[in-house]
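Continuing the batch. This is chain 6 of the set; chains 1 through 5 are on the previous pages. Same settings as before, nothing changed between runs. Recording input and output for traceability.
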Amino acid sequence: MSTPKFFVRKNVVFSAKRYGIDALSAMAQGLFASLLIGTILCTIGDLSGMSIFNTAGNYAKAVAGPAMAISIAFALQAPPLVMFSMLAVGQAANDLGGAGGPLAVLVIAIISSECGKLVSGETKVDILVTPLVTIMVGAVLSYFLAPPIGTLAMDFGMLINATTVLHPFLMGIIVSVLVGIALTLPISSAAICQAFAISGLAGGAAVAGCCAQMIGFAVISFKENRWGGLVSQGLGTSMLQMGNIVRNPRIWLPATLASAITGPIATCIFHLEMNGPAISSGMGTCGLVGQIGVYTGWLSDIAAGTKAAITPMDWIGLILICFVLPAVFSLIFAKFFRKIGWIKDGDMKLDL
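Output for chain 6:
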C-alpha cells in the first residue's frame, strides 16, 4: 500500500528505520549533549572543587527532555517551527514520564513532530498554527500517555535489574550480549539503556558487552586498520564494522562470544555496577563514558553511605572487564575463526 501523496509531500514517512533507528540514535545524541555531559561536568566540579562546573552541569542535565525531543525532530527532518516547538513537548513528556521519561519522549516526540509537519506551511498564519498544533498534541499526549509509558519502561528496567541480581550468571550473559549487539547495530544502545533505566549489576553487564564489541573489533582488526582503526573503534564505535558484518557476519563472532564471557565475569566475580547515569551503561569505551559512569557511580555510592571507599579491586575489575579481557578473548576467538577460514584478511578493513 503506497503512502498518500500528502504525506509524501510533507515528508512523513512511516518506517521502522526512521522511527526505530534514526529517531532513537538522535535521541541518544540529545541525551549525550545534556544529561550525560552534565553529569561529567558535575563530576569534574566535585573532584576539582570548582563550582562553575557543577553549575554548568546542572543546567545541562535540566534540559534533557527538550534536548531529546529537538534531536528527534531533527532526525525526522522537521521544519524549524516544529523543531523549536519540540522543546516544550520534550519537557512535558520527560517530566510526566518520571524515571521512564526518555521512552515517553521518544514516542510522544515522534507523534508530535509528525503532526506538526503535517500542518506546517499549510496556512497563512503558520507562525501560530504550527507551534500551537505541535505543542498541544505533545502536551495532551504527555498528560495521558507519558505516565503509563514511563511506568512501563521503569517496571521493565526494574525487572531486568532485579533479575540480574537474582540470576547474575545467566543475565550477565544475556544483557552483555544483547546490549553489545545493539551498540554495533545502527541503533542506540545508550538510548535503550537510558529509556529502560538499565543500571546496577545489569548496567555493569551492559558496560561489559559494549566494551567487548568496541575493544574486540579494535584489536582483531588491527592488522587491517592499524592505529587509526584502534582509536576509531576502541574509543569511537564498533558500528563502523556494520558494512563488513553484512558482507561476512562471522566477523561478529569473536567480540560477541567475548561479551558472553565478560558479562558474567562482571556480574559474578567483580560485581561491577553502573550506578551513574543509565545512558553510560550503553556507551562502552566511547570517549571512556562507560568508565566515567562507573566512577561517578562509585562516588555517588560513597556519598550515599552505601560504599565505604573505592578499592584496588574496583579498579582491577573495571580495567579487566573494559579493556584487558575483551581484547584477550576476542583475539583468541578471532585466531580460531581465521584458522578454520571463517574470517579472512581484509574482512574487517575500514575506509579510514
